[in-house]
Amino acid sequence: MPLVGRDGWIEGVTRVESPNHDGRPDGVPISLIVIHSISLPPGQFGGKAVLDLFTNRLDPEAHPYFVGICNLRVSAHFLIARDGSLIQLVSCLERAWHAGVSSWNGQARCNDFSLGIEVEGCDDTPFDDRQYASLSGLIDALRRSYPIRAIVGHSDVAPGRKTDPGPRFDWQRLGAFGLLPGNVRDRPAPCPIAAEPGEG
């Protein structure tokens, strides 16, 4: 996979731009990758609902579940579909609204210093081999471009509030790619958690 460009976009990756982002604080390095999982409606894969959510086009009449989430303003930097295809939604230089209220190793507001990767899936279904392959290539590209110090799940930065990527996500398999730097997924130290844009 090509390196991340100077503009924060990866050349050759499908781009579907989300409006749900803003600027990162000055002088804060990108040091964390947060892995999420998502399926819309819950437990169903394919279709355009996830991209519609991230681009503020989700139709509340398309499914009863959508009524409660159609007004959310959320995004991630990347989405990996079940077939392994990769979509970039936000420049890595921008702050995507993916982590919501969060903290990691004593630092609150994870959106400020992280990159969010959504992997299409749910808590009770194994992820696809093609998704792990795509994720490994993406993580490698991101690590060659930014000083990534840890790769964690949404549940690690928002414990008790979020469960994704869930128990069916194979962290050991991801580690087998040799991509995990340092003591990845150490439990975060307690710290005050402040609100931030978006509720991911």
| Low-confidence sequence ranges | 181-197
Please provide the ordered H/E string of secondary-structure elements. EEEHEEEEEEHEHH
What's the mean pLDDT score? Answer: 89
Q: Provide the helix percentage.
A: 10-25%
Overall outline: globular
Instruction: Determine Rg (CA atoms, Å).
Output: 16 Å
Quick one: biggest sheet? 6 strands, mixed
How many helices? The count is 4
From the structure above, extract its key features.
16% helix; alpha/beta; 18% strand; two-stranded antiparallel ribbon; 200 residues; six-stranded mixed beta sheet
Question: How are the elements arranged and paired?
Answer:
Layout: E1 14-15, E2 21-23, E3 32-38, H1 49-54, E4 78-80, E5 86-88, E6 94-96, E7 103-104, E8 107-108, E9 114-120, H2 129-145, E10 150-153, H3 154-157, H4 171-176
Parallel strand pairs: 1-5, 3-9, 3-10, 4-9
Antiparallel strand pairs: 2-6, 4-5, 7-8
Q: How does this model look, in words?
A:
With about 200 residues, the chain is an alpha/beta fold. The chain contains four helices and ten strands. The chain has helices spanning about 50-55, 130-145, 155, 170-175, and strands spanning about 15, 20-25, 30-40, 80, 85-90, 95, 105, 105-110, 115-120, 150-155. The strands form three sheets. It has a six-stranded mixed β-sheet with strand order 1-5-4-9-3-10. It has a two-stranded antiparallel sheet with strand order 2-6. A two-stranded antiparallel ribbon has the order 7-8. Strand 7 (about 105) and strand 8 form a beta hairpin. The longest helix is centred in the last third of the chain and has 17 residues, at about 130-145. It is globular, with a radius of gyration of 16 Å. The two termini are about 25 Å apart. Mean pLDDT is about 90; it is low at about 180-195.
